[in-house]
Design a protein that fits this description.
This protein is of the alpha/beta class. It has three domains: 161 residues, Glutamyl-tRNA reductase, N-terminal domain (Beta Polymerase, domain 2, 2-Layer Sandwich), CATH 3.30.460; 169 residues, 3-Layer(aba) Sandwich (Rossmann fold); 78 residues, no CATH class. It contains 17 helices and ten strands. The strands form two sheets. It has a six-stranded parallel beta sheet with strand order 7-6-5-8-9-10. A four-stranded antiparallel beta sheet has the order 2-3-1-4, sandwiched between helices. Strand 5, helix 8 and strand 6 form a beta-alpha-beta unit. Helix 5 runs antiparallel to helix 6. The longest helix has 29 residues. The protein is elongated and about 110 Å long.
Length: 451
Amino acid sequence: MTVLAVIGANHRTAPVEVRERLALPGDLVRRLLQLMRADPAVEEAMVLATCNRTELYTVARKDHDGLGPFLDRVARLKESPPVTDTGIFYRKEGLEAVRHLLRVAASLDSQIVGEHQILGQVKDAYRQAVEARTTGFLLNKLLHRAFRVGKRVQTETDLGRGSAGIAQAAVELAGHLFDRLAGKTVLLVGAGRNAEGAARALVRAGATHLIVANRTVERAQQLAAAPLRTPDKKEAACRQAGEKPVKGDGDPPTTEAVGLEDLEGVLARSDLVITSTGSAEAVLTYEGLADGLRRRERPLFIVDIAMPRDVDARLGTLANVYLYNLDDLDRLVERNLERRRREIPRAEAIVESEVEAFGRWLASLGSAPTIRLLQEYLDLLREAQIERYGRKFSAADREPLERFAESLCNQILHKPLKFLKRLAEDGPTGEQLKTAELVRRMFGLKETDGD
């Protein structure tokens, strides 16, 4: 017997130091999935690894101990000691695992409720699992259900309207640190999705000078050259009329791009730093930067939104350096939660309706319901044909005709029913569920919520 389950740790159960040890940057997710594929107890697997959660979704034998092997594999891949505090992990099975994933996709389980980035991250996790060939019938169905839930919540509720993801929350924090961002020099370390989101939020908040530092200078140049501000209606009207907009606070920021080797130099002229690389090690190191930062005469604010962290925590002990990380965003999270609280019940209702629909679909694929539907289908078919052709026979021949039709239907059903019952002997498995749905589609049986 197999069971759908999720094990994981997130921002609610584990501090940033532990989440950092579970982070899977680079190709570690792909390599972990390859190890999972070799496990005979696991039929299907997907890993969702973000800055705030590391989760393993499996369809595996019910008696399979997923947590121990998972932690050992992560430790082996990262060449570090395994996490031993198992109390920070949650495990959910069956419909509870379904509910958990749908809430994640709906951004109800995010640090900042309503942020849209998580749905893209779930899609990326699914894509990696498909490429690693670790998904099957059940996870394929479940993930497409999750995508639908995420989209419904985004379009049918205001949960994500004006929402701020981690990058936007970092910019919101910066707004509390400075009276205004105009005239300040902001350094973005990293040029990925979070950095791009932060850049756009910074420009909306009034930042006028951005520096992008990245390991690949070409990518930093791409982000620095990207249009980061959407023209307002007045400016758009001016451009459409061929007029030059009046210069003012809405002008595009000045930008520049550098490599990580130039970090020390650009830090000296920066007021705010937001880091979001995918590096497995600290990018802003104490050994490399502490001496220069000690000579600063004005404060430097650093917001580290990377996981693993980009900034050596010891830099935060320097006199003029103020360092914030993901856990420092909790106060903003609470503020956002309060602002969006009115929409949470509507989003939760969507999730619950989809969980119930998925549960009905899953239950309908049991061997017993499928056998019942198949028998009902053959009974209806037999009755329809007797009704159609029975009048051509005499009353004396009607009874033998009915016995013949019933016997023929029983013969047709014998092997399919025997096959379905044999599949069900060890409890539900991915193969049994897939076969049951195939039988339903083959005979055009009653449609289910999963179709």
